[in-house]
Design goal:
The structure is a homodimer. With about 270 residues, the first copy, chain A, is of the alpha/beta class. Chain A has one domain: TIM Barrel (Alpha-Beta Barrel), CATH 3.20.20.70. In chain A, about 40% of the residues lie in helices and about 15% in strands. In chain A, the strands form two sheets. The first copy, chain A, has an eight-stranded parallel β-barrel, surrounded by five helices. Chain A has a two-stranded antiparallel ribbon with strand order 6-7. In chain A, β6 and β7 form a beta hairpin. In chain A, α2 packs parallel to α4 and α2 packs across α11. Chain A is globular, with a radius of gyration of 18 Å. The mean pLDDT of chain A is about 95. The interface between A and B is large, with 59 and 59 residues.
Chain lengths: ~270, ~270
């Protein structure tokens, strides 16, 4: 999906909501567990319920890999089920030497039809470059993450600026705002103004709203740009809004609540 | 596998060779492609041919993911086929917020029987910790990698020392030399003495010998400690030593050549 198509989808739905499919068999409604493929059945119901309000779905690959081959199958079925006009993210945090990153790009952009993949920046340019070579596909590189561990390295100072600032500045030179986004955690609201000075036009994928406590209002106020430039992710707060037979309608209500709030922030 | 068992295996085989199974259907001998599972058939032949000289096998997950569900199946069959007295590494470069890293640990340590997994340090302590909670299992954290991109961040200076040095120092405090190793590329020989000052007792996983040009002699001279403390990986140089019907015996010869050279360095 191109930047233009993504912006159109956001404008048309008045939403920049990404729903995170961190689907854990231990947390989904019990009645689904007797189905032949409970993970996919759950995801299908969540997608059907939330697709009017979401412009993106983020599949957290760890939860699927934890289920082995069945999990990988459920991931494939899920990404293939997502409507083509909704942006798809493999939240996989991959990155390795060039010939290996090329294989990851093949896995997620050719074998699976994801629009984008999250990428760890530690190993530098040749670990990111292979993800930038597919027209209409995106690398979403870790900038400043939402977790406590962000303090260990990302927020440390390196050659006059913090590591995450160096990462944003440096990585932005490897691609364009048409094939690169950055992950910035919603819990890092104090840094958003600064981040927009470094990368004014790039889209940001913002996890950490909901279960992790980030504020949608603050993010939207500090980080929205003239093309919106935000995909705000909620995972647990939407998909586990309820764990009875009403789970899908509860997820729909929660997704709609985010969309309604987002609508008020869109300029 | 415990540290003690690993050291015993190294002493008993006079080898610290890790064979990297970066198995690419485009590079394996053509006659295997008609088998129902060419990747596993290739790996099985390579393992049978090299197991006398290798103390570890490293499965590069990217190459398996690039083949989709069939690849994940081949990975599972391969790791289950590797003899239990040989150390297994999922070269997966994973790492995410705590609840997600826990799922990756489950994927590679419970669903699959790997002894260890490579982990990216960027997201800090809670992204690494879940891998350290399994007795006899290991996190192998990226320190200084073998690729050109290492210059982009890893070798930059941060609060008085280079990023990779900060990573070694900081991450070493999160575990012990019984559950943590570090990746240091063979192409970084000039840094090995310095690395041993920071982490004198930890095992190092050293890729980059062979196709990437690192010197086994230099690594062994600068980085071996009294428990050997090294797993030196060769992937392409061993597994693609020949691509005719003789590929397995060519791989065996190449593995044996490394082992013979290693034997002369072991103190």
């Amino acid at each position: 999906m191109t930047r233009k198509q993504l912006i159109e989808a956001i404008r048309s739905k008045s939403s920049y909501l990404c729903v995170g499919l961190d689907t854990d068999p231990e947390r989904i409604p019990k009645q689904l567990l007797s189905s032949p493929d409970p993970i996919f059945e759950f995801n299908k119901a969540i997608i059907d319920a939330t697709r009017d309000f979401a412009v993106a779905y983020k599949i957290n690959t760890a939860f699927y890999e934890a289920q082995g081959i069945d999990g990988w199958k459920a991931m494939q079925k899920t990404v293939e089920y997502i409507p083509k006009d909704i942006f798809t993210i493999a939240d996989a945090k991959r990155g390795d030497i060039g010939n290996t990153s090329s294989q990851y790009a093949k896995a997620f952009f050719e074998k699976l039809p994801f629009d984008s993949i999250t990428v760890a920046p530690y190993m530098g340019s040749d670990s990111v470059q292979p993800f930038l070579e597919y027209p209409g596909k995106w690398a979403i590189v870790l900038g400043l993450t939402s977790n406590a561990g962000a303090a260990d390295f990302e927020l440390k100072t390196m050659e006059g600026s913090r590591l995450y600032e160096q990462v944003l500045k440096t990585v932005a030179e490897w691609g364009t705002d048409e094939n690169l986004m950055f992950v910035v955690g919603a819990t890092q609201a104090a840094e958003f103004k600064n981040i927009r000075k470094i990368i004014p036009t790039h889209f940001l994928l913002v996890p950490g709203v909901g279960a992790q406590g980030g504020s949608l209002k603050e993010i939207s106020e500090y980080a929205m740009n003239e093309d919106i430039g935000l995909l705000v992710n909620a995972s647990r707060a939407v998909i586990y809004a309820d764990n009875t037979t009403d789970f899908a309608s509860a997820a729909r209500k929660q997704a709609q609540a985010y969309q309604q709030e987002m609508k008020t922030y869109i300029r």
